[in-house]
Amino acid sequence: MLTGLKMDLSLIASRLHDDNSELKQRVVSSLALVDESMCSVQSIAARLRPRILHQFGLLPALDWLVQDFRERSGIDTEFVASALVDSLLPEEATAVFRIVQESLSNVARHAEAKCIDVSLERQDDWLVVEIHDDGKGLSQDEETSYESIGLFGMRERALAVGGELSLVSILGKGTLVRLRLPLEKEQT
Hints:
- It is a single chain.
- This protein is α+β, with helices and mostly antiparallel strands.
- It has two domains: 2-46, no CATH class; 54-182, Histidine kinase-like ATPase, C-terminal domain (Heat Shock Protein 90).
- The chain has seven helices and five strands.
- It has helices at 2-15, 21-48, 51-56, 58-73, 90-111, 140-144, 149-160; strands at 76-81, 115-123, 126-133, 164-170, 174-182.
- It has a five-stranded mixed beta sheet with strand order 1-2-3-5-4.
- The chain is elongated.
């Protein structure tokens, strides 16, 4: 749609006469805005479903996500993984990635945190992913508010792949988001 809009604006710009310079300038400005919008859409699409997740797997994708977040937000963010996750289904890996992504986004927007730790480990037959920040924390009302669409979405993603999402928050001390995802028991 943006490409079609750009083509139409380019056609209009080419047919405008110089005696209509104000209108021509608006069309040229609109073309620049369309170009900027196209770049934004591509960037957003890459963040929502990065190729690295499907090409290299969850761990490199999470490592990339945390590095990118650290650079963009300026918040000291670390990622530690002590488990291999080769056995995850693609939809499970995507759910984990998106939950971490949404958690980081929530911290940047609301928590006023100085540091975030993201960890991934295996605990018995569970994959456990934790996102812990040292921000201002959430009140009970904020945790259950209808405005907390991000939290609701994370819980829905976890449930959709058979997982559990919990949140522990202490005002003034930070928030811990924990995702537990069942792993298939290895056959012996």
